[in-house]
Design goal:
Blueprint lengths: L2 E7 L3 E7 L5 E8 L5 H19 L3 E7 L2 E2 L6 E2 L11 H9 L3 E5 H12 L7 E7 L3 E7 L2 E2 L37 H4 L1 H11 L1 H23 L3 E5 L7 H9 L12 E4 L6 H7 L5
Parallel strand pairs: 1-4, 4-7, 8-11, 11-12
Antiparallel strand pairs: 1-2, 2-3, 5-6, 8-9, 9-10
Helix pairs in contact: 1-2, 3-8, 5-6, 6-7
Length: about 280
């Protein structure tokens, strides 16, 4: 039996899980993300994987989900600014430490893969996974395969402008990427928190779901997925699933909008599950 080890590499913690051939979770462990310089962090990261394998009792395939991506030509990590691995050849160096191939993907892609495989998007040909948390991320799975794209940034809808901004909204707050009006600054958890502070719970949610409907309409107009699966801290807001589908027809370029908007089946566990699934059974 071949075991699959998945890693969810974040800025503050690393989560590892090992899965059997039948998809059953065999073990799970967490550790703080090391930040003591690249070489030390790499050593600690590889040791954590090896210790997990010893605990599982077998050498595993290894898949890693992380913020940002591995640039397809330079091989360096890009857009993972909250980790010690940004700008480094992490895939190359980790493979040398483990003496085997390691598969990497953006954490939102791993989330989408998990939910498309046997989660809330199971059985759908095109699935968009939307993470609404500290930031806004997105992943695309088509016929069971992650769509990475030419630059490795497919699904990064959070860094496009919010569509149909009102006069009050324009030009929008400055994003961490340096641009104005990105969806991330309107639809993330902190953005909803700011609206609640300014307008109160009910008004803030009414404004938020309309902005999210506009943001999702962008995805539907260019990708036309069968389902949008929502994860992250904001996904717990039940009003998203009641109100956003009703609002989508205002903005989507179709006389009938049948795209489902549903919460993730596996929640926070989808990242590490999807990382393991970068290796098929």
């Amino acid at each position: 039996m071949t075991l699959r080890l998945g890693v969810d590499l974040g800025g503050t913690k690393i989560e590892i899980a090992v899965f059997g051939e039948d998809g059953r979770e065999l073990l799970r462990r967490r550790a703080p993300t090391p930040h003591a310089g690249y070489d030390s962090a790499l050593e600690a990261f590889s040791s954590l994987i090896q210790e997990s394998e010893r605990q599982a009792g077998e050498r595993c395939t290894v898949g890693v989900g992380m913020p940002g991506t591995i640039h397809p030509r330079s091989g360096r990590v890009v857009n993972a600014h909250n980790t010690p691995f940004n700008g480094r050849r992490l895939k190359h160096d980790l493979e040398a430490k483990l003496n085997r191939e390691v598969r990497f993907a953006n954490d939102a892609n791993c989330f989408a893969l998990s939910e498309a495989t046997d989660g809330a998007g199971a059985g759908r040909s095109v699935v968009f996974g939307a993470i609404l948390g500290t930031g806004v991320g997105g992943g695309i799975v088509v016929h069971g395969e992650v769509l990475n794209g030419h630059h490795g940034i497919s699904g990064e809808w959070g860094h496009t402008p919010l569509p149909w901004m009102t006069r009050e909204e324009h030009p929008g707050p400055r994003c961490n990427c340096g641009r104005l009006g990105c969806i991330e600054q309107w639809c993330s958890g902190p953005a909803l928190g700011r609206e609640r502070d300014a307008r109160g719970e009910e008004n803030a949610l009414a404004i938020y779901v309309d902005r999210l409907a506009r943001a999702f309409s962008l995805v539907i107009n260019f990708l036309d997925p069968e389902v949008i699966v929502v994860g992250g801290g904001v996904s717990k807001e039940s009003r998203i699933y009641a109100s956003v589908p009703e609002l989508l027809p205002r903005y989507v370029y179709s006389p009938v909008v049948e795209t489902e908007v549903v919460p993730a089946k596996y929640g926070d566990a989808s990242g590490v599950r999807g990382a393991a699934m970068l290796w098929p059974r």
